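Lay summary

Proteins are chains of building blocks that fold into shapes. Our project writes down both the chain and a compact code for its shape. Here are two examples, one after the other.
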Amino acid sequence: MNWKNLSLASLFALLSVSAVAANAQNEVKPAAYMYGDHLDIAKVLSIKEASASGCGIVQTRLTYLDSAGATQAFDYGSYSQSCGQGN
């Protein structure tokens, strides 16, 4: 194997490792919200509710930016939005 092939193989290996690292940074591990937790929410990015077949409490994930600009997320229980408005 000559130096040109070795350097190209090294370059592709380095790019692959950096791409994996970038994807790992995009994955946000959500925390479980506890009543009374201090939340540093500068901007809400998304609120996703687990699918529910009826009324009741469902798992909801809020993804947001904190004041430092880092993406954070937490899970909490909320009343299903798929319920009718009746009592």
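And here is the second example, written the same way.
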Amino acid sequence: MLFMVIERFKGGDSRPVGERFQAKGRMMPDGVVYHASWVDPADMRCFQVMEAASAESLEGWISCWRDLIDFELVEVLSSAEFWAGSRIDR
């Protein structure tokens, strides 16, 4: 499953997140795959695409960052997957 992970840096401060990342890396559990990320500097948010068997599989990773980041998980499909499984009724 693919997830869009929306991270909001607590207090609008990205510095502690960057420092921990430099010291410890992503700290992802086995079975979780990082694909890509983008940062919105105006609102201090990060958008990441992650792959995991379930949302619960991401909990170990989230627990490493929860003190610095508020998380929102959205299960997503690629456009190709969505359209291949959709039936368009007219």
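What can we say about the second shape? The chain has one domain: 2-85.
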